[in-house]
């Protein structure tokens, strides 16, 4: 199992790095990463729906797929539309220049439309009382938990480039590696035995150390190399970024473990040997992305 984890982990890292490089050089931001994101989100959505079904909950599946696609499409297309509007206006200032705010508005409208669509689908199939509220709630949870949280990662890419995406992925995943490595070596004290028996306090400390180190390398070396002329992030900035993103990533891991524990599943799927499902890989990124976005948005890093 460990051999599979190392082999597939290396392959996944190589694919992501390659696509990030291509996307960094692309004329259209996101043209290489967005198709991969659509495929990954589609599989993760299927896994969430399978977990819900294991718990006896059966929302209208096509609405969840469609709304998640609508959310990430809004997050990707809106900055492109904003950029075209600014160029068409000759680069003049105004609300259209604030592309991050523009994307947020599009995403919120997409979410509102999606919630309405979920209820409409439940109305169409309603036959007798019982289960409608739970099914609708599960569908809304799936689109907020997956589609909505993923939009923050897209907005980081569209507003602050590949360097922003790299900062989220590197810091979060190095935290995962630190937790796994240190936990396996010296982990003794359980952190959340009722939810995830394998996680330890020692592993959490290792995650923090690895994430802060990754944050330092990212903002002192990678970000300046990819964005020449950008201001230097202070030690307080990259240090607090590493800690906050790591903690939110661990929280995301526990959040997914809570769902799996509730439906008596060990993994979200079996599509990736050694890892489980796609959701088992991206769970930490889901909650880390909004925190990372906040740091970039308020100018604390970058």
Query: How would you state the average pLDDT, rounded?
Result: 90
Q: Determine the strand fraction and express it as a percent band.
A: under 5%
Along the chain, the helix and strand elements come as HHHHHEEHHH
Largest sheet: 2 strands, antiparallel
| Number of separate domains | 1
- Number of discrete helical segments: 8
The helix content is over 70%
Can you summarize this structure?
The chain is mainly alpha-helical and 302 residues long. It has helices at residues 2-25, 33-54, 61-88, 99-125, 132-186, 201-226, 235-262, 278-297; strands at 190-192, 196-200. The two termini are 38 Å apart.
Description of the structure:
The chain is mostly helical. It has one domain. The protein is built from eight helices and two strands. It has helices spanning 2-25, 33-54, 61-88, 99-125, 132-186, 201-226, 235-262, 278-297, and strands spanning 190-192, 196-200. It has a two-stranded antiparallel ribbon. The longest helix is centred in the middle third of the chain and has 55 residues, at 132-186. It is globular, with a radius of gyration of 20 Å. The relative contact order is 0.13.
Produce the secondary structure layout.
Blueprint: H1 2-25, H2 33-54, H3 61-88, H4 99-125, H5 132-186, E1 190-192, E2 196-200, H6 201-226, H7 235-262, H8 278-297
Antiparallel strand pairs: 1-2
Helix pairs in contact: 2-3, 2-5, 3-4, 3-5, 4-5, 5-6, 5-7, 5-8, 6-7, 7-8
What descriptors fit this protein?
8 helices; two-stranded antiparallel ribbon; 302 residues; 2 strands; mainly alpha; 76% helix
């Amino acid at each position: 199992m460990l051999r599979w984890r190392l082999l597939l982990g290396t392959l996944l890292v190589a694919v992501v790095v390659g696509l990030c490089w291509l996307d960094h050089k692309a004329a259209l931001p996101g043209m290489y990463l967005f198709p991969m994101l659509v495929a990954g989100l589609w599989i993760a959505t299927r896994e969430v729906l399978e977990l819900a079904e294991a718990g006896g909950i059966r929302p209208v599946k096509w609405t969840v797929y469609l709304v998640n696609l609508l959310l990430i499409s809004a997050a990707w297309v809106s900055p492109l539309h904003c950029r075209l509007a600014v160029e068409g206006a000759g680069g003049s200032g105004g609300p259209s220049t604030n592309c991050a705010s523009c994307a947020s508005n599009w995403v919120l409208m997409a979410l509102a439309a999606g919630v309405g669509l979920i209820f409409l689908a439940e109305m169409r199939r309603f036959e007798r009382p019982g289960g409608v509220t739970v099914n609708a709630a599960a569908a809304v949870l799936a689109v907020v938990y997956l589609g909505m949280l993923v939009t923050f990662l897209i907005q980081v890419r569209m507003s602050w480039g590949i360097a922003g995406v790299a900062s989220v992925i590197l810091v979060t995943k190095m935290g995962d590696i630190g937790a796994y490595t240190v936990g396996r070596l010296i982990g003794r004290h359980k952190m959340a035995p009722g939810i995830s028996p394998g996680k330890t306090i020692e592993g959490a400390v290792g995650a923090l150390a690895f994430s802060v180190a990754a944050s330092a390398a990212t903002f002192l070396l990678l970000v300046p190399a990819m964005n020449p002329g950008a201001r230097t992030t202070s030690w307080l900035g990259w240090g607090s970024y590493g800690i906050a993103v790591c903690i939110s990533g661990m929280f995301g891991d526990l959040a997914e473990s809570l769902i799996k524990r509730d439906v008596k599943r060990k993994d979200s799927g079996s599509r990736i040997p050694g890892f489980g499902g796609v959701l088992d890989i991206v769970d930490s990124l889901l909650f880390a992305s909004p925190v990372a976005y906040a740091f970039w948005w308020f100018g604390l890093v970058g």
